[in-house]
């Protein structure tokens, strides 16, 4: 089945009352992405008692994750680590240990998070990352599921209008030029080098059985699309009966989305999927103060994403504009509570129809 085209409208919900969900099952939510925004959303969904699964990119090649990926030929563990902590019911001290990162003067351990080393070690002990995650599910008292988008590390490829191709997430971001589209491949020296990437175990099932599938928040080309362009993930997004929700970034991002409007973000996702599958787009409606745009804390974020009403209408999604802004000293973020509240409103609306 495919999603029916829907007329773009500004949706206004009545004041939402979480108690409305007491007579219904709490939503089964599958979130697809990576980066720093994903754990924030996951912990909020957990607090709202959603049945949550995170599908996490395996194309990260920077920092501790990139180093372990290269030396051990394993999937990068950093985003997985952060998602596990976000869904964990373990005591805070155990979470702190899992997240502890060695100091710069610690030689070969410099920059490595203990959790990254534990995930890599358990994957070696148990034979693969999925058996490692089953054990961590118990050890960390995980309320939900964390699934790598693919069972092996992938290389992100950016394709440009001039026909050139640049590989590797960190290299792509450093190019600072408009990307036409992205693809993924297996690493050249791995046993799957000549095969097309496929979704990891249970990923398609998580998308097909969800009430809501959420894309984002996160970097468009390096956190969200590396998952979407895996063929059976793309097809699952077309076929799923779930409502597909896209969380639009608040700020444009250096090396990825300069000059992008909210409609541009949706258009790029739909282009990579091959159909207009996004049912709802959550968009921040609050102006970001000038001093945050000029902040030296977040030089990779440029200006606030502009609003393009006509462009959004062409993407055939229901547009929800709301105050989603959370301003911190370190930068501009989505407000966790407000974001989850809007997601629960979408679910409530869908079960009442």
From TrEMBL:
Molecular function (Gene Ontology), one example: LPPG:FO 2-phospho-L-lactate transferase activity
Transmembrane segments: none
GO cellular component annotations of the record: cytoplasm
GO-annotated biological processes: regulation of cell shape
Alphabetical UniProt keywords: Cytoplasm
InterPro entries for the chain: CofD, CofD-like_dom_sf, Gluconeogen_factor
One Pfam family it belongs to: CofD
SUPFAM superfamilies: CofD-like
NCBIfam families attached to this UniProt entry: CofD_related (TIGR01826)
Function: Required for morphogenesis under gluconeogenic growth conditions.
Similarity remark: Belongs to the gluconeogenesis factor family.
Protein name per its UniProtKB record: Putative gluconeogenesis factor
Classification of source organism: Bacteria, Bacillati, Bacillota, Bacilli, Lactobacillales
């Amino acid at each position: 089945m495919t999603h029916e085209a829907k007329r773009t409208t500004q949706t206004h919900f009545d004041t939402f009352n979480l108690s409305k969900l007491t007579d219904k099952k709490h939503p089964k939510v599958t979130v697809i992405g990576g980066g720093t925004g994903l754990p924030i959303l996951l912990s909020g969904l957990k607090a709202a008692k959603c049945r949550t699964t995170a599908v996490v990119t395996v194309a990260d090649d920077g920092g501790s994750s990139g180093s372990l990926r290269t030396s051990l030929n394993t999937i990068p563990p950093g985003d997985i680590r952060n998602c596990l902590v976000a869904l964990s019911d373990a005591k805070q001290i155990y979470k702190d240990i899992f997240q502890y990162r060695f100091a710069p003067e610690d030689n070969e351990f410099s920059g490595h998070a203990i959790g990254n080393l534990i995930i890599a070690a358990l994957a070696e002990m148990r034979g693969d990352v999925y058996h490692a995650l089953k054990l961590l599910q118990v050890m960390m008292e995980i309320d939900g599921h964390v699934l790598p988008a693919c069972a092996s590390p992938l290389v992100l490829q950016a394709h440009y209008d001039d026909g050139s191709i640049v590989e590797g997430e960190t290299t792509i971001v450093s190019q600072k030029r408009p990307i036409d589209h992205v693809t993924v491949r297996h690493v050249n020296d791995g046993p799957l080098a000549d095969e097309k990437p496929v979704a990891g175990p249970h990923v398609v099932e998580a998308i097909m059985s969800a009430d809501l599938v959420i894309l984002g928040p996160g970097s468009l080309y390096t956190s969200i699309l590396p998952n979407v362009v895996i063929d059976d993930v793309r097809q699952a997004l077309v076929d799923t009966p779930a409502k597909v929700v896209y969380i639009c970034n608040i700020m444009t991002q250096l090396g990825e989305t300069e000059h992008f409007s909210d409609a541009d973000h949706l258009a790029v996702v739909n282009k990579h999927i091959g159909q207009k599958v996004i049912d709802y787009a959550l968009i921040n409606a609050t102006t970001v103060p000038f001093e945050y745009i000029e902040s030296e804390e977040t030089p990779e974020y440029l200006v606030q994403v502009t609003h393009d009403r006509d462009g959004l209408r062409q993407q055939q999604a229901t547009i929800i504009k709301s105050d989603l802004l959370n301003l911190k000293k370190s930068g501009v973020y989505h407000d966790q509570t407000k974001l989850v509240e809007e997601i629960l409103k979408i679910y409530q609306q869908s079960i009442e129809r």
